[in-house]
Known about the structure:
Blueprint: H1 5-24, H2 28-32, H3 34-39, E1 43-46, E2 58-61, H4 75-107, H5 123-155, H6 164-186, H7 193-196, H8 199-204, H9 215-220, E3 227-231, E4 240-245, E5 253-259, H10 270-275, E6 277-278, E7 284-285, H11 288-297, E8 300-307, E9 313-323, E10 332-334, E11 337-339, H12 373-376, E12 389-390, E13 408-409, E14 429-436
Antiparallel strand pairs: 1-2, 3-4, 4-5, 5-7, 5-14, 6-7, 8-9, 8-14, 9-10, 9-11, 12-13
Helix pairs in contact: 1-6, 4-5, 5-6
This protein binds 2-acetamido-2-deoxy-beta-D-glucopyranose (5 copies) and calcium ion.
One 2-acetamido-2-deoxy-beta-D-glucopyranose binds near residues 237, 238, 289 and 290.
Amino acid sequence: MKLPEWYWLSSAVLAAYGFLVVANNDTEEIQDDERAKATCPMRLESSGKCSEAGGCPYQVSLPPLTVQLPQAFGRMEEVLKEVQNLKEMVNNLRKACQDCKLQADDNREPGRNGLRFPGTGAAGEAGDNRVEELESEVSRLSSELKNAKDELHVLHGRLDSLSLPNMNSIENYVDSKVANLTFVVNSLDGKCSSKCASQEQIQSRPVQHLIYKDCSDYYVIGKRSSEIYRVTPDPKNSSFEVYCDMETMGGGWTVLQARLDGSTNFTRPWQDYKAGFGNLRREFWLGNDKIHLLTKSKEMILRIDLEDFNGVKLYALYNQFYVANEFLKYRLHVGHYNGTAGDALRFNKHYNHDLKFFSTPDRDNDRYPSGNCGRYYSSGWWFDACLSANLNGKYYHQKYKGVRNGIFWGTWPGMSEAQPNGYKSSLKEAKMMIRPKHFKP
Ligand SMILES: *[C@@H]1O[C@H](CO)[C@@H](O)[C@H](O)[C@H]1NC(C)=O
Ligand SMILES: *[C@@H]1O[C@H](CO)[C@@H](O)[C@H](O)[C@H]1NC(C)=O
Ligand SMILES: *[C@@H]1O[C@H](CO)[C@@H](O)[C@H](O)[C@H]1NC(C)=O
Ligand SMILES: *[C@@H]1O[C@H](CO)[C@@H](O)[C@H](O)[C@H]1NC(C)=O
Ligand SMILES: *[C@@H]1O[C@H](CO)[C@@H](O)[C@H](O)[C@H]1NC(C)=O
Ligand SMILES: [Ca+2]
């Protein structure tokens, strides 16, 4: 009885992710493994039940490896160096593997050895082939990185015309290459394993390496309660907690912002909007760096839910949502509108928040020449000159007078009516949340 191919594949993919986690977090997991590491450069873990015929799914873990990916042009050099290191590592691995192979052959119990590579009879040859495959993969990656670097050189000096999608696609390209490479490394045959750790150690070590990039990944594994979950949108960066809405329109939403009672002050400086603030279960801003990572990792759609003090509930849906990094001042990109609340983000030619930079009371990146919209309207937002929407405005429990700095959505029925000294209304609740475009609940 042979295990189906996908079974092995999925455990290898888990291993690939785990590998990236280890690469990132060189404190805890690695200390844990200090002993095994001292004796062997790579480690095998079983990742499921063996079949009766002796085929076992398992995965290989390698020593920590750090591959820094470019945030800017200059970092490309570093990546090339890292790839060089990778090449050396592959050579060392190959040597280690050959040494180990001899010993492994001695230790092997005939019949039910748990160390056979599923789907391959001659594990030895398969191991060598794998190493060779990996080597050619490394040199291919290396030359592709060189090409990408040349490409960047051509673009260098024309930063203005270098559109964001370009930079992102290069970053994503390198990301996917490294992910692929990691996959290959991890699927190396585990010939060394019998030497590295006792069978008991192998069996007792849990395998839980899957990465959840956003709330939709939790939905996919069956989580249905709206709760706080930990996500890792970018395996190279840290993970963090988010609130997941598993109810609205099928669920799977990662909530970026919530207003409901005025318990959190939203008049805050750049650093606060960058890092995030508030209480994930009540009112909060998730943080621009996190929003950037989430919207970079997958194509996202944005849903905005609004409610006024009369109990009217409306929503806006944008079929694309992306927030650039801090270097690009967290510039907003929204796609086509659909919904009931009106397209206040793209109100008209003069009031359009799409493609605008983020401004805060202490950082003026807006299009208003004679002042700072963020200071005037007490908020961090993608101000134009200045606004047709401001969901981070002040929380008012009732109608107010003066500067229109409340929670504002310009297309809300009656909200934009201009009576110079009259009362203005504010929204009671607001929520912004994202979900992968291709997610099907
Ligand atoms: C590593 O993981 C531990 C616990 O999982 C966490 O406390 C620590 O902050 C992480 N370190 C880094 C650098 O991410
Ligand atoms: C790695 O790349 C190859 C060729 O580009 C592709 O066929 C393969 O599916 C990729 N593997 C993964 C895990 O992405
Ligand atoms: C919110 O914070 C700002 C800046 O720290 C402060 O000026 C303002 O008074 C605070 N508002 C409330 C309602 O506490
Ligand atoms: C991601 O990494 C970058 C650079 O290392 C850092 O500036 C940023 O704050 C990180 N983002 C998060 C959400 O940890
Ligand atoms: C709005 O989006 C929903 C969900 O994607 C879709 O079912 C509906 O047809 C869209 N409506 C319009 C007018 O595009
Ligand atoms: Ca200004």
